[in-house]
Specification:
Radius of gyration: 26 Å
Number of domains: 1
Distance between the termini: 122 Å
Strand content: 15-25%
CATH class: Alpha Beta
Number of helices: 10
CATH superfamily: SGNH hydrolase
Strand order of the largest sheet: 6-5-7-10-11
Order of helices and strands: HEEEEEHHEHEHHEEHHEHEH
Structural class: alpha/beta
Oligomer: single chain
């Protein structure tokens, strides 16, 4: 007689284990498919820094402005073969030097702005403000522009300096069109800050407008950092989506924000008895016309110093305006702002 062996029915725990395994396999396959699709679309993990490894670290985190220059004397290797090294000197007060010796006791002209006014990627004696200091020893030019700053950060710095007792004769804000995106912490700008930083996440303060049109200030905000962002393109994409949902709406008001910030600078200087002007360094033809109409309407002094910047006039291998453009800017400031004040 044969005895038939019948397998016992699977236990509830084994059925649950197999069900969980099928779910896990499905999730893995789904993630793999999404990862492949993201990479085909050009999305990459966030571990690829675009920062130049030869550049010294010249900025430190700042609790209010996001970052600030570190005083010191820096020699930056050339960005292209055969080009000279770049000497950058940051004084103890955070300003970039504008002369071999300070013009102590002379009326102070304070300049705030971004890397264009700072003179990034060129040496101290090639910057716009060095040229102006050489031509006008009767003045003391102070270069407090900071790489990657926008209008809001320039305003924060100006407020900080005036509260600490600084009393310049005049303040010049050097305007670059990209400040509009920086002021509202636009998604792509936050991503670029992080990608080009060698110090991890970069926090950016930003401004928006309230319903009554008044400025609303926001503390420094970093780019969102999720686990596995350096390994999975899908995680990098999710970070972008999350930030776009919060940052997207405020980008629509970037034009009104920059105008409100410029007026805040103007009014701040007026309260301290300081002359305020805007130096327009870079803008598209349309933006340039819009800015000029705004300056005229708001009675803001300005100098339109926008000039073409061809590839041959940029720092080889880096892209910022080179010495020739800085000389042209200096001549424009001399003609349109300094001579107009005499």
């Amino acid at each position: 007689m044969r005895i038939a062996l019948v397998a016992p029915p699977p236990s509830s725990s084994s059925r649950r284990a197999r069900r969980l395994a099928r779910i896990a396999l499905s999730l893995v396959l789904s993630v793999a498919a999404m990862e492949a699709a993201a990479r085909i679309a050009g999305v990459r993990p966030k571990d690829e820094s675009a920062a130049n490894p030869n550049e010294p670290i010249m900025h430190a985190p700042h609790p209010v402005r996001g970052w600030s220059p570190i005083p010191g004397r820096y020699v930056i290797p050339p960005y292209a073969p055969g080009a000279p090294s770049i000497l950058t000197t940051i004084a103890p007060d955070g300003s970039r030097v504008t002369a071999a010796a300070p013009a102590a006791g002379q009326p102070e002209v304070l300049v705030v702005g971004c890397s264009f006014a700072f003179g990034w990627a060129i040496s101290d004696d090639e910057t716009m403000l060095w040229h102006l200091q050489e031509r006008h020893p009767e003045l003391h030019f102070v270069n407090r522009a900071v790489k990657a700053y926008g209008t809001y950060q320039a305003l924060l710095l100006l407020e900080e300096m005036l509260a600490a007792g600084a009393r310049p004769t005049r303040v010049i804000y050097a305007l670059h069109q990209s400040h509009e995106e920086r002021n509202v912490a636009e998604t792509r700008w936050l991503g670029m800050l992080e990608r080009f930083s060698r110090q991890g996440g970069v926090a950016l303060p930003y401004a928006t407008l309230r319903d009554d049109g008044m400025l609303e200030r926001h503390a420094p905000e970093p780019y969102p950092a999720l686990p596995l962002r350096g390994r999975l393109a899908t995680v990098a994409l999710l970070e972008d989506v999350l930030l776009a949902r919060t940052a997207g709406p405020r980008v629509a008001e970037k034009r009104r924000v920059i105008e409100a910030l410029i007026l805040a600078m103007r009014d701040l200087c007026a309260r301290h008895g300081v002359r305020f002007d805007v130096l327009l360094l870079q803008a598209s033809p349309r933006k340039r016309a819009e800015y000029i109409r705004f300056f005229d309407r708001a009675h803001v002094g300005y100098a339109d110093c926008v000039v073409p910047i061809p590839a041959t006039a940029r720092v080889p291998g880096e892209g910022h305006p080179g010495p020739m453009i800085n000389e042209r800017w200096a001549a424009c400031v001399e003609e349109k702002l300094l001579e107009s004040a005499t």
